[in-house]
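<amino_acid_chain>
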Amino acid sequence: MSAGKLPEGWIESELSALGHIVTGKTPSTKQRSNFGGDIPFIKPGDLDLGGYIITTADTLTDEGLTLVPELPANSIVVTCIGNLGKVGITFKRSASNQQINALIPSGKINVQFVYYQILTLKPWLESQSAATTIAIVNKSKFSQAPFKFPPISEQKIIAEKLDTLLAQVDSTKARLEQIPKILKRFRQAVLTAAVSGKLTKRSDEYHNWQELPLSHIASHVVDCPHSTPKWSSEGKYCVRTTAFSPFNLDLSNQGYVDEKTYLERIQRLKPEADDILYSREGTVGIACQIPKGVELCLGQRMVLIRASGKMSGKYLTIVLNSNKILKIVKSKTMGSTVPRINMSDIKSYPIPFPSLPEQHEIVRRVEQLFAYADTIEKQVNSALLGVNNLTQSILAKAFRGELTEQWRAENSELISGENSAAALLEKIKAERAASTGKKASRKKS
């Protein structure tokens, strides 16, 4: 949290001053017969969406709830082991596992305000973990988390402003996140137009295009060696299907083989620049070309395709990645554990075959439209990064008092005297002392 002078009427406190701190517990295996009720049992994965926790993967019965600390509605739960700082609010009576610490806040403070401020604690939590393998912030340390505490009236105003502002941010983010999906559909529509003759606006001539099996317009369609390569720490690339996505080959995480293994694996055909790598097992139906200046051999689960002199390799890659071929792939794919397609089916793919000049024109237009989509996608990713940063920026402003600066100037009576933050903390302290006294009396009796 940012240091510096606190706004007028605010005080600095520790999280433990706001209520009771509780660490969750997981029932033993023997006790898990009590699972299956309607009481939420919260684990870190249940906090991924933030806000109120409406559903959980596991639940407890009333009997099972006696085995773990009970959390009333509006408790704030925080992951304190592993991925620190995920935050949520209990929607009703709940419990949590041992990876979660919870604040059961006093009824005298605004729960939403506390929730939003705890969202900013992730950097502090990470700084407090002394563990090297798994990050851990224990209950004692969690209780000491710094908290900026304004008067209750200002807490409500801040929470309301954050509700509005962050809802707008979330709405913007949701719209931006839809754009990559739209661009994916756009790219596939471009490919569909490309292989139907519509992209060059010569659909009247499409009927004069030939449609030939892949084996007739490719000089080679060669299956990979059916053996696991002997890997080496250096040498030449041996490519796995994880290296490529449609039109793109990424060698950054690929392994190597020595010269002997390389020569063994290129006996059927030595891969050359512009040859097409095509996946035939696992994720079936992805095509990309080998870039210039790269020597590689094939791992497993793929096919090497070389276009003939009458066929553009780039155009053939477009066809192989289009829905025209992907629909065939879907219908011909076999195997539930490891999906695959037979070589005979690959060789029989129907390939639309315009003249070579038109192939080149189709490639030019596809590349132009894809570049346009790539530019938009980069702008969207940049905007998403800005939106994510905006959330933290708004929260930071809120807890520096900047969102309510004008409100404080106009409502000085609501932040002073009996309405001050100091007075409110004293009331919470007295409430907790009285509660502790009642528990002690019940134990004595």
User: Anything to note?
Assistant: The chain is about 40% helix and 20% strand. The domain at 11-149 is CATH 3.90.220.20 (Adenine-n6-DNA-methyltransferase TaqI; Chain A, domain 2). The CA atoms of residues 387 and 393 lie 10 Å apart. The mean pLDDT is 91.
